[in-house]
Specification:
The chain is of the alpha+beta class and 307 residues long. Among the domains are: 99 residues; 92 residues, Thrombin, subunit H, CATH 2.40.10. The chain has a six-stranded antiparallel β-barrel. A hairpin with a 4-residue loop joins strand 4 and strand 5.
Length: 307
């Protein structure tokens, strides 16, 4: 009997040890999963904070651009109201000139109907003086009319400028850009310029590179940041090389032209896109390589993203 009890106790002890061992493994696995969950939660919170910050910056930029657009529209409406007032002034002056002309014709007729000059000298002199006064008023009216016409022309130019600027802002078009090349990576086919979204730069804009007054290359903005932009090199003049400090200005094709823009865009679709030669970049020219730089990737995969 005691042997059976001893065996039973031993079996129970073995079972308890096995259960404890398995339970310990489960606890260790749960602890590992808990640590991973904490790490993932911290990463998620950091990512969410970055997204919220970027969203706030975007909303502030939208608010600023909307305010500028509303201000330009107000100016345009004010200029239109001024033009309407000038039209009314012009109409009134034309009516006044017509009335004075009728009066002048009547005075001339009265002068012509005077018979005996000796007997009607006083009346003639009065009529002549009145006619001279009317002529002077007509001259003054014509001068005023000329001034109104000139003012109207200037007003129309101002209205056109406001309308063009508002249309450009609504379409997201650039007006001008004054920047320089900050860094060049010719072997990789791109450069960095010292102007970004905070300076009114738009993505996909085509730019000209000038050295003094000579055009030495063309660029297109591909990555837009707040204070700098990354641009692909579209073309470089033979015998020239892009260098830091070269001036960057908006390309003539990119400038706003409401009448010719559709035709220019259609022509641009037919133009061939230059392709940079697939040369192996020299060692040390990779701006994204860690220190020390790894071996250069294949020529058809400059950033080493292939299998």
């Amino acid at each position: 009997m005691w042997k059976s009890l001893t065996i039973l106790v031993i079996l129970l002890a073995i079972a308890a040890s096995i259960f404890r061992y398995l339970n310990q493994k489960d606890i260790e696995r749960e602890v590992t999963l808990l640590e991973r969950a904490k790490t993932n939660l911290a990463d998620t919170q950091d990512h969410r904070a970055n997204i919220v910050a970027r969203q706030q910056e975007t909303e502030e930029e939208i608010t600023r651009v909307t305010g500028e657009r509303n201000e330009e529209e107000k100016k345009s409406l004010a200029a239109q109201a001024k033009e309407a007032q000038l039209e009314e002034d012009k109409r009134q002056l034309e009516q006044l000139i017509a009335e004075k002309q009728v009066k002048l014709d009547k005075l001339r007729k009265d002068v012509a109907e005077i018979g005996e000059i000796k007997d009607l000298v006083e009346k003639s002199e009065n009529l002549q003086a009145e006619m001279a006064t009317v002529q002077q008023e007509i001259l003054i009216g014509k001068e005023s009319f000329k001034k109104i016409v000139l003012t109207r022309v200037e007003t129309e130019k101002t209205i056109a400028a406001y309308k063009e600027k508002v249309s450009m802002q609504r379409a997201g078009e650039m007006v001008v850009i004054e920047a320089n090349i900050a860094a060049t990576y010719g072997s990789w086919g791109f450069v960095i310029i010292n102007a970004g979204a905070n300076h009114g730069v738009n993505a996909r804009t085509k730019l000209d590179v000038k050295r003094e007054d000579d055009l030495i290359g063309t660029l297109r903005i591909t990555n837009l940041e707040p204070n700098f932009s990354i641009c692909d090199i579209l073309s470089v003049t033979e015998g020239e090389a892009l260098a830091p400090g070269d001036q960057v200005k908006i390309n003539s094709f990119t400038k706003w032209d409401p009448e010719k823009r559709a035709a220019a865009a259609a022509a641009a679709k037919l133009a061939p896109v230059p392709v940079a030669p697939a040369n192996k970049p020299p060692a040390g020219d990779d701006p994204f390589a860690p220190d020390p730089a790894p071996a250069a990737p294949a020529a058809d995969d400059p950033f080493g993203l292939g299998n």
